[in-house]
Amino acid sequence: MSYLRVKRVMDFTLSLIAIIVLFPLFVVIAILIKLDSSGPVFFKQTRVGIRKSHFSMLKFRTMYLGVHENTPTELLVDSDKWITRTGKILRKYSLDELPQLFNIIKGEMSIIGPRPALWNQYDLIAEREIYGANNVPVGLTGWAQINGRDELSVELKAKLDGEYSNNISFLFDLKCFFLSIIVVIKTDGNLEGKEKFEYEKNLNHWRK
After folding, report:
1. Which of 153, 169, 154, 129 is nearest to 206 (CA)?
2. Inter-residue contact 144 to 60 (CB < 8 Å)
3. How far is the C-alpha of 178 from the C-alpha of 174, rounded, in Å?
4. pTM across the whole model
5. Out of 19-33, 43-57, 58-72, which region has the weakest mean confidence (pLDDT)?
6. From CA 77, how far away is CA 65, in angstroms rounded?
7. Per-residue burial over 8-30, b = 16 or more CB atoms within 10 Å of its CB, e = otherwise
8. Which of its termini does the chain have fewer beta carbons within 10 Å around, N or C?
């Protein structure tokens, strides 16, 4: 049996257990979101999965109503204007990503893999194609996430995703899983809105 088949069984089992264990947390987060601002608890966004297929990725809603669903966060220069108070906490510790456990149950995602690109992030999708990173299941967290996250350029992110894709294994997944916990706790590489915009502008200027 190939590792990808074993990986799918592990993804399903672990995600189901996580949903059951974390259900009280889901309820608390849902209540806080509803108390903080009007709108739905969950947010759906079209993302790119394995072999460039499209699917609706779930998140807890962290922004006020009125933000275009296909706008990358880094383009929201005045992020404080759009992100709710509860949303800032959820995003800081990546708790807004927890509903993607349901995407994993459905087989649209994996626990470990390249983070799903927005359908209109053509530059990232094209770069991943060069490294073969579009041919593995996308993930809740991944190799690029623990090696810089928002601080990475598109090219470096795609290269790291390619490294994962070409060396995918149980031990590599295990390494990514535990390092992801450390990164989330330390909130490493988590940039928002104007902060991320300015970082990428300075990075591009330095590269020239």
Report:
1. 153
2. no
3. 6
4. 0.84
5. 58-72
6. 17
7. eebbbeebeebbeeeeeebeebb
8. C
